[in-house]
Amino acid sequence: MILPGVTHWNHPGFFAYFAITSSAPGVLAEFLSAALNQQAMLWRTSPAATELEEVALAWLRQLIGLPGEFEGVIYDTASVSTLHALAAARETAVPDVRAAGLAGRKDLAGVRVYCGEHAHSSIDKAVILLGLGHNSLTRIPADADFRMRPDALARAIAADRAAGLLPLAVVATVGSTSTTSIDPVDRIAAICADERVWLHVDAAYAGAAAMVPGYEWILRGAERADSLVLNPHKWLFTPFDLSVLYCRRMDVVRQAFSLTPEYLKTSEGDAGVRNLMDTGIQLGRRFRALKLWMIMRHFGAAGLRGHLAEHMRLAQVFAGWVDASDRWERVAPVPFSVVCFRLRGDAGDDDHQRILDTINASGEVFLSHTKLDGRFVLRLAIGNLNTTERHVARAWELLNSAAATA
Ligand SMILES: Cc1ncc(COP(=O)(O)O)c(C=O)c1O
Q1: Global confidence as pTM
Q2: What is the pLDDT of residues 180-227, one digit of tens each?
Q3: Is residue 379 within 6 Å of ligand 1 at its C-beta?
Q4: Is 18 in the pocket of ligand 1 (CB under 6 A)?
Q5: Distance of alpha carbon 338 from alpha carbon 17, whole angstroms
């Protein structure tokens, strides 16, 4: 009864959302991690899990070209990584927030967090949860290629300062959810430096691509950010879940969260060991680093780069078919492995929904949609280790036959 009720995220015809994929070393590592049952709240409760996390995250950091002053920590999801980053931003902007909180304060002007029009909803949830209020989030308009406009950001910050508000953080996105657009992080970083505002980079999906030769530029400017999130469970063959927060100021994260009750004090104290419970809200943490380490050991840098490059090649192949077609049009650039497209002419939401339902009902492929400029758009996302040109061609065939009868 269970398997028929499963959506097959690991299928090579899975092209929906961000097509994530597991891998044999990742599955084996999950098995071992469950068998070893490590709880790495303190260094002494699992020295190996604590130290392997440091090793694996240093390798990943080097692969994507972030400088050594970024310390990494593993959380379950990007939503949680971003929540911690914005908690650190709040700690920096309102140093007594830990003791005094935010409620009922007359000494504190309203705060503001900025992100692009196309940024992920995890940022909304973070500001809600951190007590900043949803109204504190300002979405900055995008350019024609769905990227945050730095001039509009600078103007919004200036206007808020003039109104007596406190700009607290900016979230730039590298690989936005709908179109995988890339905000100009270097220009945004310059604004944040001038304004002394925390810069968090949401590279949850696309950050991994920075390891591919020719794609280093996508994180240009991120070396000046305060924090960055990258999800190996999205596009690095890691079984769900594993998100990495890199932070240049992990001391601020610790300042925000560390708290040691008597029963967790140890004889080694703070002497040169890292207690992972200090870097976040959760006390207990499982041995996620093992799967990331095993995946990097198994594929090697060249293997990882090769698979990511192949996914991007397949996306270009599909985009080429769309561009050459009289029936379809592409509606966004394709910097990575996602193609956004719709029917030419005046086909409506219902027509597109019918096509989507028809091809998904085939059981051979699974696609999802978004809306851009108010119009229904189909998305084909490539990310599975076993996806080949044959699977992409089959999706194209199914789309065309569904469109012919729509
Ligand atoms: C750009 C971006 N950021 C953050 C997230 C949230 O990821 P998670 O499910 O790990 O919280 C997503 C999810 O798709 C995303 O696309």
Answers
A1: 0.97
A2: 999 999 999 999 999 999 999 999 999 999 999 999 999 999 999 999
A3: no
A4: yes
A5: 9
